[in-house]
Amino acid sequence: MDLNNPKTAQAGTLESMDCVVTITGPEKNGVIEITGSASARFETVMKKVINETLDGLGAREPVRVHVQDNGAMDIVLGARVEAAYKRYIGEFTR
Amino acid sequence: MRRTMLYLPGNNPNMLLRGHLFEPDGLVIDLEDAVSASEKDSARILVREALRRGEFGKCEVTVRINATDTPHWRDDIAVVVSCGISGVRAPKVDNAQTVRDIDEEISAVEEKSGVPQGSTKIFCLLESALGVWNALDIAKASPRVTAILPGGEDLAADLRTNRSKDGVELEWIRRMIIVAARAAGVDALDTIFPRVNDDDGLRKEAGFVKQLGYDGKSVIHPNQIPIIHEVYAPTEKEIETARRIVEAASAAALRGLGAVSLDGRMIDAPVIKRAEYTLKRAGLDCPKEG
Lengths: 94, 290
Description:
heterodimer; A: alpha+beta; Ribosomal Protein S5, domain 2; B: alpha/beta; TIM Barrel; 2 domains; 8-stranded parallel β-barrel; two-stranded antiparallel ribbon; globular
């Protein structure tokens, strides 16, 4: 874990029913931040989706996940987290 | 039925998850032109999740993959075919070899992912003069091919012209493709109508391709769907004639007769098939044989 060399990756859009997921790391501890009109109401569920997605991808390194939500359903949030994380670890070369 | 096949941008959750609510006959989830090169990876994941969710109403679900001259098409096939879709829409098909390459790739993914062999069909977009010229070979290149379609914009560019209001530049292309499709026993589907606010123009073009024998059109805006369905809806007279043909054929089959006549005219299998299709387009069931 090299805390002096932070990386950032992003996926998604601010279109309706979408969200922008930004992953920054490495961090000392994992952090999830959610903003958006309905973030307070669905925060618990959204955090669960994010954690399950990262676990499913085998993510071990603690990262900061920021979600700017615009009404994304669970499957959209999960897809954007997966894309952002794969970009973060360099699995996707764009 | 494939009267209307609505394009949905593969990286747009709103359209991707709600497009079927407009009740087209089919969906074409687009991973090609509607998705920028830098977003192909993210769109592919989103499309995979939408396909796994599988809430598309009664629509036939297809995905337009990227062309075989790009680095994306194999990844597209790997992801979408393993989800068990109806078919892939392959762009820029110029010759039979392209179809065989796609067929081979699909077969490998079907095998690996447990999807029934041969269940994923191929819709071939013919977007160059060479592709149109090879239409029959392309349509017969694989049993997976279920339809061939003219491309609009790319084809116009390859012909060194542009899309005109009356579509004269595509007139003979459309005639060539319908003949090739019927000769090969596959569907002919028309290209999109680009002017989304020109309802009269769309009605006229849909009427023209319907008369040529096309099974339907590609659609880029939900508002175009009811107009095309209206054009493809059979008239009362057509429905009545079709109903009488199907009933006469059923009655003859019950009596063990091979041939049947109605109003002094022999009715053979293609006539019965066409009548059944007319009833289907009218949303009516065919009477079942006893």
